[in-house]
Amino acid sequence: MCTLEKRGSLFLLTLTGDDQHRLNPALIAALLSALSQIRSQATPGSVLITAAHGRFFSNGFDLPWAQAAGSPSEARDRVLRMVESYKPVIAALLSLPMPTVAAVAGHASAAGFVLAISHDYVLMKSGRPVLYMAEVDLGLTLPDYFTATLRSKITSSAAAAALRDVVLSGAKVKAAEAVKMGIVDSAHDSTEGVLEAALHLGEELGGRKWKGEVYGEIRKSLYPEMCGVLGLTHRDIISKL
């Protein structure tokens, strides 16, 4: 499902196993557990880097698992259960007391796209991998916290057009275009290059030794719509005068 490795002040969270890393109840629970562990071990200078093995960063919710329920009503209930149980994962990332970096070396679709852009920084492999909001093609509406995340994170001068293309046309966005849209921070030629760049960025950020609690609260203050939908509150902290 996922592994967690600590490299000095860096936490490396890696999605493993199934090549598509579909977000079913087991993987969602594993991610939430890992993020809870990371939070409990956070110190000044900690940084989270999230990566994945294989062709996919994550192919979104596990719809085949939902469809295997049998009846349409049972399948719908399974989808709704995944939507609700995934919400705390995004809330945990938004409130994590450290910088976060997504190393996207494979396709990131739907809920997997949301997972990637819920990090502070997104680094992506050039070439075949795409970012893709599949809901319009699948006939599914967006959960409110997906919409809030997309609006909060895609904020370039071309944001309106980018959101339209990503959400309403199901555009499959490659790394170079994603950089132009302001969705991705940088593009890299190989899987190894993405991870190496993410680790380098993590070391730079960790070297600042920021107080994690303050960092997390400042992050939350930047995204009031996300916080409102996710049920997060902002606290004022004064650690130094």
From TrEMBL:
Documented EC number(s): 5.3.3.8
Reaction catalyzed: a (3E)-enoyl-CoA = a 4-saturated (2E)-enoyl-CoA; a (3Z)-enoyl-CoA = a 4-saturated (2E)-enoyl-CoA
Record keyword Protein transport present: no
Entry keywords, A to Z: Isomerase, Lipid metabolism
Major enzyme class: isomerase
Similarity remark: Belongs to the enoyl-CoA hydratase/isomerase family.
PANTHER family: ENOYL-COA HYDRATASE-RELATED (PTHR11941), ENOYL-COA HYDRATASE_ISOMERASE FAMILY PROTEIN (PTHR11941:SF75)
Molecular function per GO: delta(3)-delta(2)-enoyl-CoA isomerase activity
Pathway: Lipid metabolism; fatty acid beta-oxidation
Any one biological process term the GO annotation gives: fatty acid beta-oxidation
Database matches in InterPro entries: ClpP/crotonase-like_dom_sf, Enoyl-CoA_hydra/iso
A GO CC term assigned to this protein in UniProt: peroxisome
Name of the protein: Delta(3)-Delta(2)-enoyl-CoA isomerase
